[in-house]
# Entry
Amino acid sequence: MKGPFVIPLPHDRGQRETFTLKSIRSNLVLVFDTETTGVDVNEDRIVQLGAAYYQDGGRLGPPRSMLVNPGMPIPSGASKVHGILDEHVANEPSWQVVGDRFAHHLANGPQGDAAPLLCGYNAVSYDTPLINAEFDRHGQSTRIDPKQVLDPIIFVRWYYRHWPKRSLEHVAARKGVRLTRAHSADADAMATGEVLMKLLTEQLIPDDWDQALSQQHQMTQALEEEWLEFKHSLYRDRETGELTLGFGKHIGTPLAQVDPSYLNFCLNKFDGLTEATQEAFSRAIPGAIH
# Structure
């Protein structure tokens, strides 16, 4: 990615995109979240599934959740995060049962008459592959297409790259969304839905479903390219394209305004800086040999 990344409008493209004008606010949205035995999306198991429905800008009923017997011990490290212990799930149903119920909601919604739009925080890279692995593990045919899941964290990573933390808990706090039981799947699903509504109101996520997914795809590609070039050290300002520090006490500060002595310290201290980062830091230090 060279220069500022501007998400192109349909009339800016070589080939015009056609959107369906499917309003996210007006349509039924199923927001889902999982708590698990670990972070390996292929091998770890789900211990709690949470969901909340949204429509017309608000939540439909209370969020819901089910505990899941993962068929394996829950590591203590995972329990420290979500508070779910082996004894809590010993008499709970397996994914075979929970997955069948969830598949019904994915296909039919709460009333059994329409498939909902899908949303989850960090769901594209985490919750969705975990759920699909569980479906596969239990011989169930249902799969969630990650390309059809709206993921607010991608928009947060793009527009709020200057925030030191972008976890759901921290984003909810910054957006004025109450999250009293972080890492409980139902509470996280509800908070994700509220964050989604905030981002829609702020027009950081388009209300049109297809347009939102299109922008999400473009942002994902741009973020991946930026990561390959700079890792976490630098990013380009989303409006000006100016190189900006992406970590530490000066996060969000244009590189040209960072104290050169700090950049020199980073060059001498950190071994993992990419070549592009080292070159950018060196150019910003007066008198440095480029």
